[in-house]
Amino acid sequence: MTITEAPPAAPATPPEPPVRKASTRKRLVPYWLLLPGILWLLVFFALPMVYQASTSVQTGSLEKGFQVTWHFATYWDALQEYYPQFVRSLLYAGTATILCLLLGYPLAYLIAFKAGRWRNLLLVLVIAPFFTSFLIRTLAWKTILADGGTVVGILDSLHVLDVTSWLGWTEGNRVLATPMAVVCGLTYNFLPFMILPLYTSLERIDGRLHEAAGDLYARPLTTFRKVTFPLSMPGVVSGTLLTFIPASGDYVNAELLGSTDTKMVGSVIQTQFLRVLDYPTAAALSFILMAIVLLMVTFYIRRAGTEDLV
Amino acid sequence: MRWLRRNIVVIAGVLTLGYLIVPNLVVMVFSFNKPNGRFNYSWQRFSLDAWKDPCGVADLCGSLTLSFQIAAWATLGATVLGTMIAFALVRYRFRARGSINSLIFLPMAMPEVVMAASLLTLFLNLGARLGFWTVLIAHIMFCLSFVVTAVKARVMSMDPRLEEAARDLYAGPVQTFVRVTLPIAAPGIAAGALLAFALSFDDFIITNFNAGSTVTFPMFVWGSAQRGTPVQINVIGTAMFIVAVLLVVGGQLVSNRRKKTAATT
């Protein structure tokens, strides 16, 4: 899950100190070290989840106050009313993740195997976008994709827009305020989160394995399919998670680059919470989103193991 | 055609890099724009006005200062708490290890909007006044896991024999920690702190839910996307970019020189 992953676990556990009768004080040391941070996470991360769960089954109004009435119908109603936004969120986030993988893999491969002394420079260029606030950069896409701008002009003259309009990704000769603009923004914003884990796992591959594959008459494409790609799977897994999870809950791209027809579930949660003040519905929506994401993550953890991910 | 086939990876990689970099360039170029209306989205003509008066927009620099303050405190809090957890996880055996690992992992695997909304329900239920403190609490919470991860990786790769050697040479536990352990773990702690600062400074979604009427820099930008984007936003974005690049290049130069002196001595 991380960029700086630890070496294999063997040397990780320091040799246990000789088991003398450790005093009680000494045995408590790890707990004292853990206490403040874990308490912080329990109170401000875990406890809020409980509050949210309880809010989602409350009924009432802002004036009269909310009471827990085990009103599970809120979930059903929320899903019925907002399932387009849910489907859209998963669809956009999924598309963006696939695009990130397709775009990010060649670049990670380039940095890991072909960059030579340019490697550090390229790595800096990959994280360089982070040096400017992501909201400002997302706004820059409004300029890039502006109606009648260069990008739209090129796409139009190549008849790309005819195809995408037919598919429903764009409208006429507009890109801004269409699904394509939102997916484009999502892909852009989360691309580094795909590239960096891919790079770490590619960089660890022993170059001699490629030579060996070549010696055994594997063609470059076969080498990639049978050696490189399988060995980079840990990077693919963490990259996918690091891209898909934040993208599925994002509402910044949808709000800034999209229209009312491209609203994602994050927008709905935000509006319900901060403007409509319908807390139960908002909490239920947020809980459903969490459940979907957690299901995905556990599926991945089953395959990769927690210690590897943290 | 053969050339194309041989260099396809390079071409694709460079195109991706372009996709990543172009928006930054647009931000820079448009910091020299003089827009006609309230929005700075289309090029009109060159002007240095915004650069001469970067704080010329009401509340902009106030929000910037606030973001710096919150990021600094959040970094401090998350780094101290996270480093302690990381040491405990690597150095000691104890019960409930699995659940603690999950508790640290989950905030990183949760969509921001879910954490933001649930934290807001907590604050609303407790009747807390939203503002500086609620934002700070939230930021320390979501930065913590990232610090733990960064520090843990470094401490794990540490050679325990160095500390044993220090103890053999009659260094006390405190002395060993301050003079041996901490200096070796420092790069990991620094990486964690930098990450925390960047995450906190640039956070929007969690802040937007829990800030009440307090306005951080990302929230100012968000608001201006509705009301009208002043050129000054681009100026500050560009300035931040330049400062960060200088820091990275400077850091690289220093570490190169250190490597060289270490190699010669």
TrEMBL record, chain A:
Ranges where the ABC transmembrane type-1 domain occurs: 86-300
Superkingdom of the organism of origin: Bacteria
Signal peptide, first to last residue: none
Keyword tags: Cell membrane, Membrane, Transmembrane, Transmembrane helix, Transport
Record InterPro entries: MetI-like (IPR000515), MetI-like_sf (IPR035906)
Sequence segments annotated as region (Disordered): 1-21
GO cellular component, one term: plasma membrane
UniProt KW Chloroplast keyword: no
Keyword Cell division annotated: no
Bilayer topology term: Multi-pass membrane protein
Membrane-crossing segments per the record: 29-51, 90-113, 120-140, 176-199, 227-247, 282-301
Subcellular location: Cell membrane
Compositionally skewed regions (Pro residues) per UniProt: 8-17
GO biological process assignments: transmembrane transport
Pfam families, sorted: BPD_transp_1
Protein family according to the UniProt entry: Belongs to the binding-protein-dependent transport system permease family. CysTW subfamily.
Record's protein name: ABC transporter permease
Organism of origin: Streptomyces scopuliridis RB72
TrEMBL record, chain B:
Keyword Signal carried by entry: no
Family matches, as InterPro entries: Bact_Polyamine_Transport, MetI-like, MetI-like_sf
UniProt superkingdom: Bacteria
Ranges of residues in domain ABC transmembrane type-1: 64-254
Transmembrane segments: 7-32, 70-90, 102-124, 130-151, 177-199, 231-250
Topology in the lipid bilayer: Multi-pass membrane protein
Compartment(s) where it occurs, according to its Swiss-Prot or TrEMBL record: Cell membrane
PANTHER family per record: PUTRESCINE TRANSPORT SYSTEM PERMEASE PROTEIN POTI
Entry similarity comment: Belongs to the binding-protein-dependent transport system permease family. CysTW subfamily.
Protein name, UniProt field: ABC transporter permease
Species for this entry: Streptomyces scopuliridis RB72
